[in-house]
Amino acid sequence: MSKRDYYVILEVSRTAGGDEIKQAYRALAMKYHPDRNPDNPAAEDSFKEASEAYAVLSDPDRRKQYDRFGHAAFETGGPGFEAGDFGAVSDILEGLFGEVFSGGRRKRRGGRDLTFDLEISFVEAALGVDKKIDVNRPAPCATCSGNGAKPGTPVHTCNVCQGRAQVKYQRGLFAAARPCHACRGTGKKIPTPCDTCKGTGSKLRSEPMNVKIPAGVQDGAVRTVRGAGEANPGGNGDLHINVKVTDHSLFQREGADILVSIPISFPQAVLGASIDVPTLDGKVLMKVPPGTQSGKIFRLRGKGIPVYGGYGKGDQLVTVVVEVPQEVSRRQRKLITELAQEIGDDTHPQQASFLKKLRGLFDA
What are the residues facing 282 on neighbouring strands? Predict the structure, then answer.
């Protein structure tokens, strides 16, 4: 099978700069890396193809030879070098991602990050709120000081991973790493586990915490509290708070604007009226001018939601809906009939225009 063009593989133009090529490869490597696609030969082939393309196009000299001779530049006997002379894929990945996918030894990290689901009301999200929450955080066991062993007993280094907590393995051309199965990714062997934590080295503790939710936060937002995750001698993890905003009985949100529909009667629409409109700041009196049509939208400036992370506030958009009575008395029906006859067709320009267009449509 003939090789695909390296520029096509990375989905970049032939004039793409180094940063654009790097970003394109980074996206493909994240998508097709074997660790993210176990037992998927097609993904592994795509990853290998993208890595080979990046190895050439990221090197100015190799790219120049490729632009001149194509794939022939790297075939045996060609003017360039051998196709296998691209260097270790793990070196390429380490340069782009640190040591996330390279298979090299990861740097020791602190405690794990934790998540907490927080439900707040529509008004709390709009105006901001301080919430007190209780978070279950793993903390070092007080009995064993976090090493997982019964006090006075030894802790041995795992003889399989040599204390690295992970083992390397080869998948085709790619070196990867996974948690050591012998020590379950701890890097140590504990002959006599601690009675309190059963060898885990940590215990769950419920801790109260005050969390500030800023005004304008949206449903699905994530607030991160640095250092509020799992405690660890190497540094605490973070706490990620997933914000869930409950629906409001009247209001809906559109960006920083609030939408609300207000029913008005036929006489109010015809004669005009002043009606009470609920807002985040309380009720306000809004004037409905005579002759207002159903569906008319009025804008209340500055009565919306504070712009999240910015300045100013949105507006409140009030849609008035003319409510038609579903049941009328005999006298009401007589009065409405008389009113209709008195009003006639001249006071309904929209209806007259529609009927005229309708006649023209069928007469044509």
Answer: 279
- Report domain 6-97's class: mainly alpha
What are the C-alpha distances in Å from 235 to residues 33, 240, 281? 29, 16, 43
Q: How far is the C-alpha of 67 from the C-alpha of 314, rounded, in Å?
A: 53
Q: What is the percent of the chain where pLDDT is above 70?
A: 84
CATH domain 252-324 topology: HSP40/DNAj peptide-binding domain (2.60.260)
Query: Which structure tokens are listed for 223?
Result: 């607030």
Query: Which residues in 72-82 are b (16+ Cβ under 10 Å) and which e?
Result: ebbeeeeebee
DSSP 106-130: PPP--SPPEEEEEEE-HHHHHH-EE
Q: Which residues contact 127 (CB under 8 A, 6 or more apart)?
A: 215, 280, 306
Domain boundaries, the chain: 6-97, 110-143+199-246, 252-324, 330-364
In this prediction, residue 226 has a pLDDT band, given cuts at 50, 70 and 90, of confident
Whether residue 121 contacts residue 249, with contact meaning beta carbons closer than 8 Å, is answered with: no
**By the 8 A CB rule, do 206 and 136 touch?**
yes
Q: For residues 26 and 94, is the Cβ–Cβ distance under 8 A?
A: no
252-324 matches 6-97 in CATH topology: no
Q: How many CB atoms lie within 10 A of CB 236?
A: 20
The bridge status of strand 239-245 relative to strand 114-120 is parallel
pLDDT tens digit string along 23-56? 889 889 888 887 677 778 888 889 888 888 998 9
Per the listing, tokens 């940063």 go with: 19
Question: In the CATH hierarchy, which fold is given to the domain comprising 110-143+199-246?
Answer: HSP40/DNAj peptide-binding domain (2.60.260)
